[in-house]
Design a protein that fits this description.
The protein has 237 residues and is mainly β. Helix content is 5%, strand content 43%. Strands 1, 3, 4, 6, 11, 12, 13 and 15 form an eight-stranded antiparallel sheet that branches. A seven-stranded antiparallel sheet has the order 2-5-14-7-8-9-10.
Length: 237
Amino acid sequence: MNTKMKVLALALVGLAGYAGSAVAGCPGSPVPPWSVNAPFQGATAIVAGGLDGTACRLDSSISAGASGFASAQVEDDTPAAEPRYRAQFMINVDALGAPTLTTVANVFSATSATTGGGINLAIFGDGAGAWRLSYVLVDASNPSGYFSGSVPLGTGSKHVEFDLPVSASSTFQLWLENNVEGSPDITQAGINNSAVVGIDSAFLGLAAPSDSFVSTYAGTAAQFDRFDSRRSTFIGF
């Protein structure tokens, strides 16, 4: 199906603007179809100053003393057992400074009401003071039940986009600050994620921090913007 699921933008949800939207100020909290999934040991805020010339962005932070179950995310429940799920968002973690190898936190996940699985994206330190973006996918063809990998995240505001078909032999693709559909940064064929059935929910923001992340970055926000999800068409920027 080649239709757009939705554009979740400032005029609708208070997270990310697009050309032509006109809203006076930024709402204090997400509005439908976004919701806040009861932040636990963390905080979310919609603040002025988007990452791509937009009016507002999402700031997500983890509280001091938080556990590994902490989360500061917004939730989108508009997908409905989507057999193919494409999404893009912007992220900036410059305020977090240089990480260590054990500094880890989730930043995005898309899940199934059937299995809970789907895709999880996280940030972690590369051991040399730089951030990487990892991806973990359900994959029954792998002995562990998952397939994972990572790419350097770099500094500044980055567009992250991925394409996740759900089938017995799907091809996962990921673009990082890359606007060329035919040249993804990651292409992984042969993923068996048919047990996922379809994507029903998406979560954006920090979650599941490591102890090192909490002790180093408590109260410091990672920034998110420009979320969009679709069934099949490339999003780009």
